[in-house]
Amino acid sequence: MRSFRFLPALLALAATAGAQPADLPKTVHRVTAAPYDSDLRREREFYEVSPYSFSDDRVLEGAGIDVLPDRRLVISTRRGELWLVDDAFAEDFNRARFTLFATDLHEPLSVFWRDGWFYVTERSGITRLRDVDGDGRADESEVLTDQFGSSGNFHEYAFSSRPDREGNIWSALCLTGASSSPVPWRGWVLRVTPDGRILPTAAGVRSPGGVGFNADGDVFYTDNQGDWNGTSSLKHLAPGSFQGAPPSLVWWDRAGAELGPKPLTPSTGRILTDHLADAKFLPPAVLIPHNRAGRSPTAIAFDTSGKFGPFGRQLFVAEHTFSQITRIALEKVNGLYQGAVFPFLSGLQSGPIGMVFGPDGSLFVTGSARGWGAKGGKAFHFERIRWRGQIPFEPLEIRAQPDGFVVSFTQPVDPISAANPGSYAMEAWTYLHSEAYGSEELDRVIPTVAQAIVSADRRSVRLVVSPLTRGHVHELRLDGVRSADGATLVHPIGWYTLNEIPVR
To answer: Is residue 9 within a helix (H) or strand (E), and if so which, with residue range?
Structure first.
């Protein structure tokens, strides 16, 4: 996690413009609109949100969260605690009961349960704890690793995944102060083996907010806007990859020869051209447009129960500053992940940091706003989200085509409105890739939707679009599309990151 930004857009623009190389285009599109404003009433028609009502003497600045096999939850907090939660699946969410399991941990932002142990990611490593005598409190702890590196700077957050298929934990370490790497392995992703060895895996991380898997077992993390991140994003982690922020490259030679030669330091100011100069640099899978779709992404989760609506296998990403959850549909084109981010659910009480699905399809969210600020207004929160059983009319996916996009929907569309090119509107842009703090929207393009061709089953529409701009975010508005029974889309917008254009 990082400190959140509330500087005026003009200051960010001045910093961005001053950092551009002289030979780069300086076309800037200032963002003046507010973030996408969801229809809260319509969202709640399809998803029930139950906030837990805390007593005045209870503070729960939740960060990590997991579900135990006995349907209890465990929550780690920014204040160094572990809490066990009983009855969180009860119909009345306020029946949930909290038991303090452990204290005096060092800012544990991730936690999971495995084989009787609670694995907790602290600032300098991973500790595991368990209750041996059965009194409901931790009485045995072991250090799995203490090799994360810590300088004492307040801004050295660490987030971890649950174990992968080999039992390894993927830990993403924030740069010191979100901008430097004075100690190993700040700005890296480490795999921590079951026996506690660290495997330096990927460099170039700036300020992660969460680490997780997609349905295929590939690993992703969220990175926040700032130095070397023109906007926040979801990034794919692969061994030996470079994620774009160079301060951590100082430790590359120590990481081991199996990672290959050190990546090139980015120098072109654009994500696409830096990637073309060095394939080790993996472009973000999905750019999350700043101040449109979000500002501070955190936890990553996906539903395996099939009980959370029509979005199986898609990723849900918590958004801290706007107190909401977005939805991401990914695809692979020419070997690279890319895809679209959509609004999903807004109106949470605070800034979500931890998120987990239960076996019944319930989505549990917890977080804190202390020192960071969040739209929800409360200092902390614990909430449960459940699908009501009715399918919302939504854009389900956007998939790239050689000449445009195919948009699929959760319900059949009205063929007249969906076949009208005037039902759609697009714009596209990219971001500066440099040490400047964030970026305005650059190199703006207004694509034209020339044709809209409805499929025979009325579940998808092929849009013929010109131009397609590789390396750009393509915003697609679908305000004119109606369902077969005349309904408007709950969220008639999506943002697709076009890293690669498919070949015919």
So the answer is: helix 9-19
